[in-house]
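Human: Here is a favour to ask of a fellow structure person. Comparing notes only helps if you start from a blank page. Give me a protein, with the fold worked out from its sequence. Please set it down just below, with no commentary around it:

Assistant:
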Amino acid sequence: MNNQYSFSEFIKTVYSLAMTRLTIPQARLIRRPVYVRGAKSLAGCKRLTTGRFCRFDLEGRKKTLWIGDDCEFGDMAHIVAHERVEIGDHALLASKVFISDTSHGNYKSGDQSYAEEPPKKRRLVTEPVKIGRNVWIGENVVVLAGARIGDGCVIGANSVVAGEILPGRMAAGTPARVIKRYDSKAGLWVTDNK
């Protein structure tokens, strides 16, 4: 198998590398094009690598998106961080992952949004998101406001994470449910019969 870049891919990568050094020098490689709104809200990113067409919609005045060391994001990862999104070291996000701490409207309790009101006019409601270290998030996963994913978790493709996934768990589905846990004594991912 030949994994060499074509000449045009090589040129695009060199351009992206040069732009990374100019804009986010602590990152390893931010492939272009990339969209960052509110760049002042971005923190960390040491040795970050991203695919193409990643998008970061940030608050813009304070640090709202923390990306740990040695993280890798696939193409078209989209992160919205108006309050706080924290991604731990060595996280791996596949392509088309969406993470948001923000919702257009309140649908849980208290002063709820009205169905008659256009969604874009509803107030923004935020709830922090925390993703631990050594987490692998599969293709097309959605991580909603308030979600917490523990260290060492694996989230299966096309899942929606809306709550808490404890450390060392494998979760999948909509909404994501734990399907396995890591047994450190056995060194295996096992299915709980509970």
